[in-house]
Amino acid sequence: MTQKGLFKRLQDEGIPEASYSHEGGLPNERLCVEWKNNLWYVYYSERGIRTSEKDFLIEEIACQYFYQEIIRMVK
């Protein structure tokens, strides 16, 4: 699944948009995915700090990991 497909799936499943970000940065209390320096990063942003950060070479693997994490967080 690509990033586009990931966020469509999250919308379709009713996952609150306030719980994630696909723009990276440091939004408060959100799971984030970001493309930077030829890597995909998935991390939790809280109070301006990235925690539990993982990096991936392949978009589909990063998106699958993101999906599993966001589902675990909200359910």
Could you explain the architecture of this structure?
It is a single chain. The protein is of the alpha+beta class and 75 residues long. The protein has one domain (3-74). The chain is built from two helices and four strands; from the N terminus they run H-E-E-E-E-H. It has helices spanning 3-12, 59-74, and strands at residues 20-21, 30-36, 39-46, 49-56. The mean pLDDT is 95.
Domains (count): 1
β-strand number? 4
Helicity, as a percent range: 25-40%
Low-confidence stretches: none
Number of helices: 2
Q: How would a crystallographer describe the biggest sheet? A: 4 strands, mixed
What's the overall geometry? globular
Please trace the helix and strand order, writing H or E for each element: HEEEEH
Mean of residue pLDDT values: 95
Q: Report the radius of gyration as a whole number of Å.
A: 11 Å
**What structural class do you assign from the helix and strand content?**
alpha+beta
- Report the β-strand fraction as a percent range: 25-35%
Distance between the termini: 21 Å
> Can you list the strand order of the major beta sheet?
1-2-3-4
